[in-house]
Give the backbone structure.
Amino acid sequence: MQAIADLLAKQWQAGLPLMLARALCAAAVTELLVWLVSLRLRKALMPAVRRAAERGATDLERRTAVIVRLPLRLTRATLYTVGALLILRVFGLRTGAEVLPVLVLVVVTALVIARGPLRDAVRGYLFVYDDTFGPGDQVSCGDLSGIVLAQQLRTTTLQLPDGREAVVRNADLRTVVNHSRSGTGSGTPEHVS
């Protein structure tokens, strides 16, 4: 027990209070940066959310969850990871030589393994962001035609004319014709490739 107390006393005298102060400063700067970036990102993305506000509160909530919250979470996770690496660096861990390569390897491995679902999610995000179609719209995509029942990041569910449901991966939706909306107000369907 005395050995632990001696070690703590030695660390305290060797600069632990200064390291703690630096770590708290790094945490405060990280938190401020997260707040500023989140505020700016929210401000930049809200016009895309409001594009479909006339369709009701549920559609507005769905679009907000996808268009704003997803990028906010990704941004926060990235900034908090950088902040944690800075704090570890303050305490003497060589993050560039020890932690960063492992972190990069984990991220690259995850991207390679999840390449298909990520492609679906990016395509689904763009469909929601661009307001290409939404639940209740009559659409045609490829050889499928039906009413959109659900639109998620990875898949879109269509109710076919015969009553069956088709779940289509968003990456497979190459060309979408929305028969429920007019793209320019001229009565022509909206085409997206």
